[in-house]
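Subject: for your reference before the review

Hello V.,

The reviewers asked for a structural picture of the protein, and I figured it would be easier to keep everything in one thread rather than splitting it across files. Below is the amino acid sequence we used in the manuscript, unchanged from the supplementary table.
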Amino acid sequence: MTRRHAPVTPPVALTVAGSDSGGGAGVQADLKTMEAHGVFGTSVVTAITAQNTVGVERTHVLPVEEIEAQYGAVATDFDLRAMKTGMLATDSVIDLVADRAADATVPVVVDPVMVAASGDRLLDSAAETAYESLIAEATLVTPNADEATVLTGIEPVDRETAREAGEELVGMGADAALVKGGHIGDGEEGRSSGRRPRADTVTDTLVSTLPDGEPTVHTFEHPRIDTDATHGSGCTLSSAIAAHLAHGETLGYAVEAGTAFMERALRYGLDVGEGPGAVHHLAALREAADRHRTMTDVAEVVEAFVDRDVSRLVPEVGMNVVGATEYAEAVGETAAVEGRITRTLSGVAPNRGVRLGASSHVARFLLAAREFDPALRFAVNCRFDDETEAATAALDGPVTEYTREDEPEDASGTMGWGARQAFGAVDADDPTPVAVLDRGDVGKEAIVKVVAETPEQLGERVFTLLDTVE
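And here is what came back from the structure prediction:
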């Protein structure tokens, strides 16, 4: 018997951009990002580049007639819900795309690609002035600091000048402008020195127009990812925003969600090629796909602890085993025992089953520890006493500690602060600690936190503690 066809109908978006033979940017990045958001991506290739993670070797711009033919083939067949542009290369290509954008009835995101991450120019000087006509048709234009300077004559070196550049772009006709903050410094240092210091926090500035024509400004802040592997980051962000707009979401939400998507894609970048690497367009999908396996891993560790009876190591507050997905960034992306593991008359038992987001304290500690070593995936809290402290010497790695008496009043949370104290004190060239001693405080139970890269490693370390104290 043949199976019944069960088609789905995703929204369709279009990217008009150059091809990247290295696969990390351009049309390739756009299509990967759209697919990751549940959007069917179509493309109009404007130029062929011979490039990789090191640089751009050659560029060949397609004839305008070929570009127009591609657009016509897509527009006459698909129900487009959004459109974004990338590398357009010449003024004639920009003019063509501006004409098509003027006729479009869907959101248009313009990423004014002018310079590759490697520093190679991707746009000739005549084309820079042609961008005004395309910006006038944009729902959103997404320049970085260098591109905003070329387009507006205003160099964004801080929040104020980023806002001014955004307002200038809106004044050129765009409905909104997102001035990306990756290359922008923070405060008077950037303004007075002319340099762009790398602030720890990146601020993207969204300027849009209210119904009465007045500009409104929203900022989106996120921690800077310490990496040079930014190849394809601009393409990925603009494509993510276009994908959300294709789903019918508001511009503000699309920018916020796209920025979060970009942050994860940068943090878990792909170490490919001889250059710095590329962003990971599918990191969010991989995170979701890893949840079931992580829950199963945690459940198996819990079962092993019950079989072995680890009651000697269960603290008064109860024990919890936490597993983070490979790309976890939030508590909801960690698995743990709901209600913790507690002592019983016959040993230990979990109060309930394993679910996502079930732990708060241990999960936040693990996530903070992963900022120093992303390979850490599992953690458990154990009883702290003299015997357990002495037993940590038998573990297969270094042990560190922190004292809550040192916690400042303005700390955002003890677990995150404690992890930063414990792991941040270790030299980057030294092995990652395998356990952390939290000596507690008044009304706060002292705890030994054991961390590991695999569930098997976590179990072995806990059983080493148990064997030693017994």
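For the response letter, the relevant points are probably these. The longest helix spans residues 291-308. The first strand starts at residue 12 and ends at 20.

Happy to draft the paragraph if you're swamped.

O.
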